[in-house]
Structure formats: C-alpha cells, structure tokens
Design a protein that fits this description.
The chain is α/β, with parallel strands linked by helices and about 450 residues long. It folds into two domains: about 270 residues, no CATH class; about 160 residues, no CATH class. The strands form four sheets. Strands 1, 3, 4, 5, 6, 7, 8, 10 and 11 form a nine-stranded mixed β-sheet that branches. Strands 12-13-14-16 form a four-stranded mixed β-sheet, covered by helices on one side. Strands 2-9 form a two-stranded parallel ribbon. A hairpin with a 4-residue loop joins strand 7 and strand 8. It starts with a helix and ends with a helix. About 0% of the residues have low confidence. The structure holds zinc ion. Zinc ion binds next to loops.
C-alpha cells in the first residue's frame, strides 16, 4: 500500500486559505499639514479642499506558513525607504508577514516624493504627514492581518475593447494593458471580504488645474464595487507607463450620450463606475477556485541611475534622504511575485513591479523604430508572458516608484527621434535609466520559475 501514505502526505502539505481586509483614510488634514502640495504635473499646486478621501486599502492572504498583505495607497508613489518603514511597523505585530505597499499613482493627492513643492528646489514632502501616513498604512495592514479567516477566492478576467477607450496613449507603440483581472475574496459563509480589480490607467482625470484632493477614478470604481459586490473595494493599478491616461481619451457620457468633458469629476465617475460594472459582471458567472498555497518572493535589483534630473533632485535633497544612490551610482529597487495556487496549479501570478512599466513590457509588443538610441538592445521578455498562472496580474509602483520603465530598444533621448518624430517623446525624463527594463525583466524571470 504505497499510495495511501503518499496521498496523506499530499493532504498534509495543503494549507487552508485565509483572507482578511481593512481600509484606513490617509487624507492629509489641510490645517495640520498645510500647505499640502499636490503631486503630479507641475510644482506649487497647493490643495484647497478635500473632494473625497484618500485611502490605504489592505488585503491579507495566507495559505502556508507566512501571510502576505498587499496595501494599495492613493498616492503619487512611495519610495522603497518608506515601504521599509511600513514593513517594520507591521512586523512589530506580525513578525513573519510579507508586506507590499503599492501606489495608485493618483495625481490629485499630496506630494510624497518631493518633486512638487512650492518651487523646483523645495521638497513638497511634509515629515509630520509622512509619519502619520506610515502609521495609518501599517494600522490598515495589521487590521487586515488580524482579520484573516477561512476564505474562498473567485477569479475572473475580461478585456472588452471599450476599456481601451478610457486610455489615451501618445507614444508609439500604442499599446494598453487594458484587460481587467478581478479577485473576489469571501468568507466561509460567502460574505464578501474584498473585491480587487487589477487595471492600468493613470488616475489623473482631473488634470493639472484641480486643487481638491481626490483619489480620482479609483474613488468611483471602489465605491461601485463595494455597492455591487461587497467587501473592501480595491484597485491594484498596473502597467501605467508610456503613457496610459484618461486625459485626452474620448469617453461617452451614458447619461447624455455626449462626450464627457476632460478634467471633470463626471469623467472620472464614468470611467470608475464602468470598470467596476464590467468587473462585477465578470464575477457573476465565476466560481470559487480551491487555493492551498501562497508564495511571496522578492529580490532587490541594482539599476544604474543615469537620469541627470533624478541625480540633481537627490543632491538637492528633494527626496529628503530617500533614494540615496549606491557608491556605483545604482539605486536599489525590489521586484516581487505573489503566486497563489491550488492542487498543484498556479491560479494567479501577481508581478510586483517598482514603477510605471510600459504596457509592451507587460503584454509583449516592443517595437524597433528608426532613431532609437539602442537599436540592437535585446527585447525584454514580457512580464505576463513569463507568468504561468491562469490569471495574470501586474501591480505597478509596488514597493517603490522609480518612474517609467521603458523597453531599452525604445529608449530615445538623442536625435534623430523615434520614427523621425520632429520632437522627443515624453518618458525618458521621468525614468531612472535605460537599464531599468532589462534588469527588472531579468529579475522577474528568475522569480517566476517554479
Ligand atoms: Zn505617471
């Protein structure tokens, strides 16, 4: 009877799946922390009011020895230094927790990276707010871990062409990572714990002249998810680089039949609600999948920081001690993977990418253009083609924000410009350097191997 003991052993190796979620408001009080400089676009944009709250929304999961908690925050980005502070805080209570802190990249929240203060040389980072923020994110992370309970996971994916209409892209190749991957977590009785949507678009619908703090389209997306599906509504933003934006996208208002005005809360509402509705509809026909394993992997890569603007910003103290380069001019940044599996099959792979990845590096489709600075650079393997699970996710700005992650073969600072363009394309000015993409892809390739 050799089969029986082996069968029992296999059973013993399967862990119970647990999930929990929590959310905390991280909106800066304008009196306590004012002036609050808003991040994204140009510097010197002081907030005048709060339209809707900014959040830290944390989802904890466990199937095995160590729990993982993923906190998505309504911020332009957080550096690895701040992620490490949150991790240390959470580990005071949950010593073996793996912690992910990712930003939605909202352009209508406070400056947490230093580049958008009163003027070009004054950091917009408020130390007192950063301390409050770290504490709040950690509290939400701990609350999600405290709430871990037996759970079911239901996954769905949908990619109707209408999602592309919410994204304007002004740099070739025109490529969007516009499909939705949805993860619904419910307890043993079927009560919703959290509903997570992984999508990719810049939360900057309100544009550069808005001075009311808002989480932008994610506000409407999450509110609708909570109303239709339940649990804590969450957006994990994805490959938003090069340049995925609602600004300039032609979006029809279903109420009037006319095109929604750019830079309005109404436009953000239409986008957020429609994405949530599509996610809810996709979930309606999906069934829970068995989960018995969850693995978290992370590696820290060193990327040459060749961007003179970033070097100057670091020297001028704009980052307030964050992102200090190594002696060889490289910056440390983490690349990670969460793999959820059941019955020996990978169910969902979640890539943790520390910046704004160009969609062609997520899905594939890097192009070679005349005028590129590195015409012979090898083409990086695309993250979602390296993933092997049935459902493939990518969280951008995960644990760090190093700016745009551009295919090396598409890197273009020197004339002639890509495809004989009369002007330089936007992107490189907000990227660490041309080696970010190859180093991150190479690191992820190693992580994703079984
Ligand atoms: Zn951006």
């Amino acid at each position: 009877m050799r089969l029986l003991p082996l069968f029992l052993l296999a059973l013993a190796a399967r862990a119970e799946f647990l999930a929990g979620a929590a959310k905390a408001v991280i909106t800066p009080d304008l009196k306590t922390y004012g002036p609050v400089y808003m991040a994204g676009f140009d510097h010197g944009r002081a907030a005048t009011a709060v339209h809707d709250d900014l959040w830290a929304r944390c989802v904890a999961m466990k199937a095995g020895a160590r729990p993982t908690v993923i906190c998505e925050v309504d911020l332009i980005g957080l550096f690895y230094d701040d992620t490490q502070r949150v991790r240390a805080e959470i580990r005071k209570k949950h010593a073996n927790a793996d912690v992910v802190v990712a930003s939605t990249h909202v352009h209508e929240g406070p400056d947490t990276m230093g580049q958008w203060g009163a003027n070009r040389l004054t950091p917009g980072i408020n130390d007192a707010y950063m301390a409050f923020l770290t504490g709040r994110i950690a509290e939400a992370g701990v609350a999600a871990l405290d709430a871990l309970r037996p759970a079911h996971a239901t996954l769905a994916a949908v990619a109707p062409p209408e999602l592309d209409d919410f994204i304007a892209d002004d740099r070739p190749p025109i490529r969007h990572d516009a499909g939705l991957v949805v993860l619904a977590l419910s307890d043993a009785a079927g009560k919703p714990i959290a509903t997570v949507v992984n999508w990719a678009n810049h939360p900057e619908t309100l544009g550069s002249r808005n001075t009311e703090l808002t989480s932008d389209y994610p506000h409407y997306l999450r509110t609708r998810l909570e109303a239709r599906v339940g649990g804590v509504g969450v957006l994990w933003n994805g490959a938003v680089g090069g340049m995925q934006s609602p600004l300039g996208a032609k979006v029809k208002d279903p109420a009037s039949g006319a095109e929604a005005k750019d830079r309005t809360f109404r436009k953000a509402e239409i986008i957020g609600q429609r994405v949530a509705d599509l996610a809810a509809e996709a979930l309606a026909s999906a069934k829970p999948s068995p989960v018995d394993s969850l693995v978290f992997r992370e590696t820290v890569v060193r990327i040459p920081m060749t961007n003179p603007g970033f070097q100057m910003a670091a020297k001028a103290g704009l980052f307030k001690g964050r992102k200090l380069p190594n002696d060889d001019g490289t910056t440390n940044t983490p690349v990670g993977l969460v793999r959820i599996a059941g019955g020996g099959q990978a169910l969902v792979d979640i890539a943790l990418i520390p910046g704004e990845m160009y969609p062609e590096l997520s899905l594939g489709g890097v192009e070679r253009y005349s005028g590129a600075d590195y015409p012979d650079a090898p083409i990086e393997p695309a993250i979602k083609t390296l993933e092997t699970a049935k459902f493939r996710m990518l969280i951008g700005l995960a644990n760090d924000e190093i700016g745009y992650i551009i295919p090396k073969a598409e890197w273009d600072e020197k004339p002639p410009f890509l495809n004989n363009s009369p002007r330089r394309h936007y992107g490189e000015v907000n990227s660490v350097g041309p080696d970010a993409a190859p180093r991150i892809a190479e690191a992820f390739q190693r992580l994703v191997k079984p």
